[in-house]
């Protein structure tokens, strides 16, 4: 096992052209939970900070009238905030494939000079085209060439890994710069069938490790083909050093952590949102289904109880956030539900979380979470 307090440069992995000082990638959390402040703090501490692009402009007074323009504007605002906090840190965006105007958000991230783009909630089959289309967008091409933006897809199965890596190899002559393997204990939308999630929740998590091994086999094939390292970032249920150590022991180069950063001073979430995590019991963490059919994990509150009882909460106005969403058929609007939560209206909103959200006991700083995950050896290097 590496001693991350005494990391040599040969132990480090790269995101774009920059070395990751500590093997922690902060997971993207939307709407409005992981913005510039949290991403900047994580990057300053030596990890990779992630800004969620999902409806990122929700606080703009013009958001309801023109959500796309507000979102693109807010991406720049939050990027600048993060970069001011960590001028030389590793900062990128999480952009869901399921979002409408996905290409626009990707191009904006590239134009801003993001170090990386993490993309899931669907397979990002044409992601490489959106950051290197020289004829249509030379500004993006120039930024991509200069920054070597890392493209990081999220997989939960070997099948998905095989399909995407083969497609990128054949069509674009390239492979992923890193890969996130997101397990069943992660928060937000999950890449699993609902019945499989429930069965895995009842079994030991090790039942999923065989799948991780298969994904790693596929990644190694493309490492050999392209003669380059593809760093593997393992996420889902990594809430302490024991889980982190185990992730590294089964082949992870870094860990993706999201839930642990919600209850930090630096997190962009409303204080009431953080309190909901602090007061949650294990029995409060439940599976739910988003309006577009994707399973997810959230904290049971008044809102979820209504949804479970079959109450339909009609959207005030469709903001066109997700591709496969019909406002006339959905039980509720996920944008409205997540915005309520982000604003601190926690009983009226959807509180996405990881499986171990109930373990949060106090508000910490980002560096303190780093120490909890990687051990006391890093304390003197990143704590004030």
Report on this model:
The structure is a single chain. The protein is of the alpha/beta class and 384 residues long. The protein folds into 2 domains: 4-267 and 360-382, Alpha-Beta Barrel (TIM Barrel); 272-342, no CATH class. Helix content is 38%, strand content 13%. It is built from 15 helices and 13 strands. It has an 8-stranded parallel β-sheet. Strands 9-13-12 form a 3-stranded antiparallel β-sheet, with helices on one face. A two-stranded antiparallel ribbon has the order 1-2. Helix 2 (67-85) runs parallel beside helix 3. The longest helix has 19 residues, at 67-85.
Count of β-strands: 13
Q: Helical segment tally?
A: 15
Strand content: 5-15%
Radius of gyration: 19 Å
Q: Would you identify the regions where 5 or more consecutive residues have pLDDT less than 50?
A: 1-10, 134-146, 380-384
Distance between the termini: 26 Å
The biggest beta sheet reads:
8 strands, parallel
CATH C-level name of the largest domain = Alpha Beta
Any guess at the CATH architecture of the largest domain? Alpha-Beta Barrel
What's the order of the H and E elements?
EEEHEHEHEHHEHEEHHEHEHHEEHHHH
Mean of residue pLDDT values: 86
Proportion of residues in helical segments: 25-40%
Report the CATH superfamily of the largest domain: Aldolase class I
| Total discrete domains | 2
What class, by secondary structure content? Answer: alpha/beta
> How do the strands line up in the largest sheet?
3-11-10-8-7-6-5-4
Identify the overall geometry: globular
Examine the coordinates and then state which fold CATH places here, giving the name of the CATH topology of the largest domain. Answer: TIM Barrel
GO molecular function: dioxygenase activity; nitronate monooxygenase activity
Protein name: Probable nitronate monooxygenase
Organism: Mediterraneibacter butyricigenes
Keywords: Dioxygenase, Flavoprotein, FMN, Oxidoreductase
